[in-house]
Amino acid sequence: MEGEVKGGTVWTATQSTFVQTFLANLVADGSKTSSGFKRVHLNACAKALNEHFKISRTHEQISNHLKTLKKKYIRINQLRSKSGAIWDEENFIIRYDHEMYTSHFKDESGKERNKGDDEYINKPLPYYGNLATIFGDSVATGQFAKTSSEPLAVDGEDDTQKDEMNVGTPSSSTLDKDDTAASGNRPSKRAKKDDNGADPLVQAFDHGTQTLASAIRDAASKKALPGLFEAVDSLPGFELEQKAKYYSYLLNHPNVAHGFVDAPLLYKLSMVTEFINANM
């Protein structure tokens, strides 16, 4: 539902998923800076969102929605890190047993508390993979878009933003101390060589070049659907190797290619994401 509530912007689950998918793909592509997303990224997201849903959102509204999502992400991490909680990483479910669940929502006197946490506990959180990719949790880093039918609330009033938006990294002061353990799983930012002395960056480049060359050979031997290459090449957030492999796949599956070219942007992103998760 499109609208405003008390000065805040209402987001449907589909619109929020679109934003999450777009920005998660930018992260996977290495476009996000250490301090968050730049205005150019948020503008690009707003443009794609507006074109797809025929609405009018600004980069400031995208930024404010990210702040809302970040609060959700932080709260989820706090709840799943509590003693006694079980984190189902495969299905993104925070599992509390009956006693723990009851005591979380009622104190010893029977007074209700933590009402807002009900949407996060003992229920699948299909959008968590996107949030972890965007905000930097190694639990789900590298995972691409997941659909969500869960409403993602109403954003606060829009604030004036700087050219570089610091909305992509949670503040360490807002996380529970137990969450710091997750940081130990994050890979080092420094590039390292493997046991054979080869530079992984060079190997990745060589592999991507070989994959692209294979796609070019396929293109030469098959008549490509008009506009197919442009449709794949213009997708935001994917690496060259990923686009090349999916393009090669479409050349070998013309029926899928026809459907891909005619599909809206969000469907294209979902199709490529599903292919990458299954094949790369």
Automatic annotation (TrEMBL):
<protein>
    <recommendedName>
        <fullName>Myb/SANT-like domain-containing protein</fullName>
    </recommendedName>
</protein>
<feature type="domain" description="Myb/SANT-like">
    <location>
        <begin position="11"/>
        <end position="99"/>
    </location>
</feature>
<dbReference type="Pfam" id="PF12776">
    <property type="entry name" value="Myb_DNA-bind_3"/>
</dbReference>
<feature type="region of interest" description="Disordered">
    <location>
        <begin position="148"/>
        <end position="201"/>
    </location>
</feature>
<dbReference type="InterPro" id="IPR024752">
    <property type="entry name" value="Myb/SANT-like_dom"/>
</dbReference>
